[in-house]
Amino acid sequence: MSRPDGSPVSTPADPQELGFDPAALRARYRAERDRRIRPEGGRQYQRVTGRFGYYDEDPYAEAAPLREPLHDRVEVAVVGGGFGGLLAGARLRQAGVESIRVIEKGGDFGGTWYWNRYPGIHCDIESYIYMPLLEEVGYVPRWKYAPGEEIRRHAEAIGRTFGLYRDAVFRTQVTGLRWDEDACEWHVSTDRGDRIRARYVVTASGTLSEAKLPGIPGIETFEGHTFHTSRWDYAYTGGDAGGHLHRLADKRVALIGTGATAIQCVPHLGADAGELYVFQRTPSSVDVRGNRPTDPGWAASLSPGWQQRRRDNFLTLVTGGQVDEDLIDDGWTSTARLQQKLIPSDGYRALPPKERERAYEIADFQKMNEIRARVDAVVTDPETAEMLKPWYRYMCKRPTFSDGYLETFNRPNVTLVDTADSHGVESITENAVVAGGTAYEVDCIIFGTGFEVGVSGITSGRLPVHGAGGVTLAEAWKDGPRTLHGFYSHGFPNLFQLGPLQNASSVNFVHVLDEQATHVAEVVAEARRRRARRVEPTAEAEAAWVATIREKAADLYAFQAECTPGYYNNEGMPRKRSESYGDGPVAFHALLRDWRANGGMSEVLVDAEPDRA
Ligand code: NDP
């Protein structure tokens, strides 16, 4: 392997030197993918509506208290009270906007962290960079990886700090948005009969928010107890997010799914259930966690701006950039560093893409070999250990971290049932889960089967949005999404969307949401200052951005086509191009800052007073 100038690069290619055979690994990965591919792709799942609607009920809130429908006017309506909506509210408040109403389906703020309260729930990203607005709220998390309850409480604290409870409505779902051209405002309707008028609307309804169920034959015939991990039924299991599920002591429990959620709840189910059957289709990669309490001395030493510096450090490192020091130093960043070790910074740009990809692949094989070796080191039964080994590249699935998951399979009451050859659980009867021709009789089935992906109400058309002239967003986007910077679309004035679409993406997505919220708040502040009648990109600006997204789109096809199926690769039917900004989030955030600083806002402010700043 050499650089274009002929000088050698350090990546070894020889199996003997490497200690493994890349060709053999490649072949194994492909075989593992092939035996899992299902021709129906995403259609194998079903929504938790209609006869399955009970999987979506809120187990945490009392029945929605009756209230009179609201018929009033606010300056900004924010759809969704998770971190996206909270950040939008907080940044708008900082920009001087007083009249903000957050409209939220759950009984309180928190979004993901409101709904997901399963035992063991923790954030898999370091809390100091994941939990937003720490300095503004005056809080330092108690653990390097915070438990869900602490994160949910922090969401509530943001609501209090920024006065967002004042006008918020909970247990309320937005059912439609309609633009009123004459009044230059949105009509927001909800399932509680509200008719709210809003000058601006920000949608922040999440991308992994709708639970999904597998379409397993007979699923509706099960007569025992059942729920989805995102609506954990503590009335049935006993205990709380810290575990102690004492009511399961005499129960036979099936958990279907082994993704990031299952990795966290399995140790508690294994410890407390009479019998636990874990039904696995594809094993997760499970790396060391190493959670630890926050050092009070370190917390006291933090100087203003520390959170932004830390978040930027992580984002730069995990997206292939160079930093002087790895401030996070965990599983995410060590993998990024491993890749960089094989591609020295001075050689990175000089390497032709093919050689760069080869170096990445070698680093990936090394990382996954480590992950597989860890399974052998922890799991005592060799057959079970074999089943728990992931055979795919590191980012084919969300990597996971746990110091208790693999250990759980050493317990005598825990059985791992591999379902890869039958493409998942074969069927469900009134009292059993069937796999490999065996019926496992159980009292309870818990579905850890994940969420509909990238389907916000807006993109799916389930939340009808009627823009100027009554045109729906679904019609305007019939040939694909059309936005400027992901935020706004021509014909849909004063509507801002948060999310990764035609914007940035990252494993620490709350960081991206904060950049988005900051941008929206600055644009709204400028629109107010210059008394703009509306905020809307021209059709030309929108077309240019769509072209930029296409031109820069990372071609993930080759990588994803070799992955075992899952939601990262559209269930084995990878899309040709990514819809996020191809140069990555660091470059995208710089682009937005530059756009704001250099007159970009004039492009979207319609009938604004001249800029006299
Ligand atoms: P996932 O979609 O990751 O996992 C679903 C699981 O269900 C997979 O193991 C899947 O197998 C399995 N499955 C689906 N259908 C069947 C079937 N018919 N038979 C057997 N098994 C089946 O959902 P999660 O809830 O685990 O995680 C979703 C996302 O939520 C994560 O990727 C992450 O982004 C986020 N998350 C984040 C956390 C954090 O700390 N930040 C913690 C937890 C989740 P297969 O893989 O073969 O499809």
Outline the structure in words.
- The chain is an alpha/beta fold.
- It has a domain at about 75-210 and about 455-605: FAD/NAD(P)-binding domain.
- About 35% of the residues lie in helices and about 15% in strands.
- Strands 2, 3, 4, 5, 6, 18 and 19 form a seven-stranded mixed sheet that branches. Strands 8-17-9-10-13 form a five-stranded parallel sheet, with helices on one face.
- Helix 9 (about 260-270) links the parallel strand 9 (about 250-255) and strand 10.
- Helix 3 (about 85-95) packs parallel to helix 7 (about 150-160).
- The longest helix is centred in the middle third of the chain and has 26 residues, at about 355-380.
- It starts with 14 loop residues before the first helix and ends in a 7-residue tail after the last strand.
- The structure holds NADPH dihydro-nicotinamide-adenine-dinucleotide phosphate (NDP).
